[in-house]
Specification:
Structural class: mainly beta
Mean pLDDT: 95
Number of strands: 14
Shape: globular
Oligomer: single chain
Strand content: 25-35%
Low-confidence stretches: none
Largest sheet: 5 strands, mixed
Order of helices and strands: EEEEEEEEEHHEEEEEH
Number of helices: 3
Strand order of the largest sheet: 4-3-11-12-14
Length: about 220
């Protein structure tokens, strides 16, 4: 199957139907100050060529759908803005680059904050190549594409090298990497971003994207 056949389809009032994408487990590493700083690989998840992932949060066979959505009182509505992220982004000038910020995509993963400050402050004070590299690493770790790096204002985003796959985050969303197309239940295609996070707890108010509500509802799906 070619990369052009890889797709995620949102099923109306149902799961995410995936074709051709690898599925794996990825953990989040924290530093001694309990700030998220990196990801660690936890291995692949067995699956068929096409498979369905739970997005209601109630499956007993997570991350896969087991039909629990049919008997659950939940809101499957897709409410995310279909307009390009560029229409919502604000720009922040860095040391030789531009950071863009689209708040609508955020789920508060926390990679943009360290014990010594958050990226919006650090970008204003970074002078050395080492400091600039750290800021770019923080931005590129953002699993939602809220934050992006650009060489120039209005230019394309400069993205980290990521495989085309879906990474399951413990007790969190699906971290979709590598510009996998996401098709809405009405057939419209969401903007293809290199990094997006899709809701699988059923409670996001920005479906199909994650908005961090899983941390409030106590969603659990450990490895």
């Amino acid at each position: 199957m070619s990369e052009h056949d890889v797709k995620i389809k949102v099923i109306a009032a149902g799961p995410l139907r995936v074709s051709g994408a690898d599925l794996c487990r990825v953990g989040i590493e924290h530093n001694e100050h309990q700030r998220p700083v990196a990801y660690n690989e936890r291995g692949g998840e067995d699956h068929a060529e096409a498979y369905s992932l739970c997005r209601c949060g109630a499956s007993a066979n997570k991350p896969f759908c087991d039909g629990a959505h049919r008997d659950l009182d939940w809101d499957p509505s897709e409410t995310a803005d279909l307009a390009p992220t560029a229409s919502r982004q604000t720009e922040h000038a860095g040391n030789g680059f531009v950071m863009t910020d689209d708040k609508s995509l955020c789920w508060h993963a926390g990679f943009c904050v360290r014990e010594y400050g958050h990226v919006w402050d650090l970008i204003d004070t970074a002078n050395s190549a080492e400091e600039t590299a750290t800021i770019k690493e923080m931005i590129h770790a953002c699993p939602s594409s809220r934050l992006q790096v650009h060489e120039t204002s209005g230019g394309p985003s400069v993205e980290p090298e990521l495989p085309q796959r879906i990474a399951i985050l413990d007790d969190g969303p699906l971290y979709v990497q590598g510009r996998i197309p996401v098709e809405g239940s009405d057939g419209r295609i969401y903007e293809q971003l290199h990094r997006v996070s899709l809701c699988r707890c059923g409670a996001s108010q920005n479906k199909p994207y994650c908005d961090g509500t899983h941390t409030k509802t106590g969603f659990r799906d450990p490895e």
